[in-house]
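Figure 6 in text form: structure in, sequence out.
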């Protein structure tokens, strides 16, 4: 390739815009769901969902999504990425329609799982299409815009969700996906070129099955243990069984001549280090966002719309810093940029330990801004390192690995930190509810939402119960925040030891001196 020849598609920036719309519909729904959690827990205006059911409403999507990403990434490369994108959008829209009219928590969990199938078809092909339509020298910038779109969805989601919940019933937060999907399908059909791997392999059906079974069993055990206690054999059977099946998955992938995930890639530091980093960051961050919605709406008494607005600084930081991260990496190197981003993220998460029921609310939003700025400088360099470790025709595999780790880690973060939250809350509030009749005592001890529902029927004793529930929840939130900060800090060793520094990305900054590297990065 000539040093200054651009091998990108002529309409690559318009195509990126279409891919951003497709990405928005996937990310938007999860951020909207965060502000709807309290409403869904309400037995009158929602579905009366327990905290465990709320976690499953989130995790049924993420588990199906993650379990199918392996095979959908490969199938998209094999059968056509544009085709998978359109099918995924249509299925996501249908599942959103069904979710809006779910009659109970079980139906919502099932329809959310169907949305996960659609999301799994959408997400990996967006990144793999970017890798195919952009010249390697522009790819880091395009991925920065792609990551910034996640921030845009985070910004739009809570505010839009809150506005809808102020005026309409909870199902409107799912119905909003339908027009976005329709627009996405039309634009994909008109603008996105078809592409596929010229040398596809067979689909690893056993590997896909093992990954789904292992992840579902592991996360079920964690959620069930958090909700009902870890002193039961069924919980440990699920956890240990899930880990064993995932171990079998790894062993099978090592032996297979057509693996859904080539686990040997994890021996390559440029690939493995950013994958691990993405996992740790999303494990920590998603758990904090889960309890943040309850803190704002119950402990502090803000409406869903107000809560969404208070999450805006996190999203604003993503929008500001993510598109600029490629330039920062070229100047300072991926190791330095990701390291600073990780320190900012861990500091913000750790500072939530100091948040209580009377903390000025601007501090909550300021910490969100710091966390957003940190994550905006972790994700783009990590994603670019993952994608550049593979050739263009295998882009779907790299995208699937990156997104799978992110989704699984986020699901486990909600499950593990949600379990910590539930266990500490139950223990702390026990003395305050011990005198209540058994049925209402159990409801008040299960979650802060349950305590508020019980308080609404208590009369004179309500303020005392609400104060106890708030104190117990804040204490539980401190434990979850402290653990999340420690998990994020674990990534610092990975960054310092294995993340690429400036020399890896210099071909993009100086393509004329090293054209052969610029063409294969």
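Output sequence:
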């Amino acid at each position: 390739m000539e040093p200054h020849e651009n091998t990108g598609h002529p309409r690559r920036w318009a195509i990126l815009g279409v891919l951003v719309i497709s990405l928005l519909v996937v990310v938007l729904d999860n951020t909207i769901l965060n502000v709807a959690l309290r409403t869904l827990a309400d037995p009158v205006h929602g579905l009366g969902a327990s905290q465990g059911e709320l976690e499953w409403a989130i995790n049924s999507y993420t588990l199906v999504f993650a379990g199918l990403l392996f095979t959908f990434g490969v199938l998209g490369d094999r059968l056509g990425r544009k085709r998978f994108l359109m099918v995924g959008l249509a299925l996501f829209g249908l599942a959103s329609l069904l979710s809006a009219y779910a009659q109970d928590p079980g139906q919502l969990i099932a329809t959310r799982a169907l949305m996960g199938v659609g999301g799994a078809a959408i997400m990996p092909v967006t990144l793999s299409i970017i890798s195919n339509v952009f010249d390697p020298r522009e790819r880091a910038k395009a991925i920065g815009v792609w990551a910034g779109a996640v921030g845009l969805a985070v910004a739009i989601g809570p505010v839009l969700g809150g506005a809808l919940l102020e005026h309409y019933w909870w199902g409107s937060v799912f119905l909003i996906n339908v027009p976005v999907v329709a627009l996405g399908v039309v634009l994909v059909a008109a603008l996105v070129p078809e592409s596929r791997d010229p040398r596809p392999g067979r689909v690893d059906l056993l590997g896909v099955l093992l990954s789904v079974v292992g992840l579902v069993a592991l996360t079920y055990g964690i959620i069930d243990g958090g909700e009902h206690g870890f002193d039961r054999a069924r919980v440990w059977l699920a956890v240990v069984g899930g880990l064993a099946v995932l171990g079998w998955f790894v062993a099978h992938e090592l032996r297979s001549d057509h693996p859904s995930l080539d686990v040997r890639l994890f021996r390559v530091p440029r690939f493995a280090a950013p994958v691990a980093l993405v996992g740790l960051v999303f494990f920590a961050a998603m758990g904090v966002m889960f309890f943040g919605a309850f803190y704002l709406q119950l402990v502090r008494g803000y409406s869903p719309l107000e809560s969404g607005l208070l999450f805006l600084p996190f999203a604003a930081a993503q929008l500001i810093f993510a598109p600029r991260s490629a330039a920062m990496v070229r100047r300072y190197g991926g190791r330095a940029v990701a390291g600073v981003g990780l320190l900012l993220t861990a500091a913000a998460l750790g500072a939530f330990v100091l948040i209580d029921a009377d903390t000025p609310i601007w501090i909550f939003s300021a910490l969100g801004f710091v966390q957003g700025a940190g994550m905006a400088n972790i994700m783009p360099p990590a994603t670019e390192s993952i994608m550049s470790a593979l050739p263009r025709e295998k882009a779907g595999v790299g995208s699937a690995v990156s997104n799978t780790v992110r989704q699984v880690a986020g699901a486990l973060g909600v499950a593990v930190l949600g379990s910590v939250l539930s266990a500490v809350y139950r223990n702390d509030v026990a003395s305050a509810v011990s005198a209540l009749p058994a049925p209402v005592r159990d409801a008040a001890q299960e979650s802060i939402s349950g305590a508020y529902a019980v308080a609404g029927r208590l009369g004179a004793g309500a303020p005392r119960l609400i104060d106890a529930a708030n104190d117990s929840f804040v204490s539980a939130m401190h434990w979850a925040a402290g653990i999340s900060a420690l998990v994020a800090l674990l990534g610092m060793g990975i960054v310092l030891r294995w993340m690429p520094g400036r020399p890896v990305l210099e071909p993009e900054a100086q393509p004329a001196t090293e054209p052969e590297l610029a063409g294969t990065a």
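Caption detail: The chain has two domains: 12-191+260-507+514-518, 204-255.
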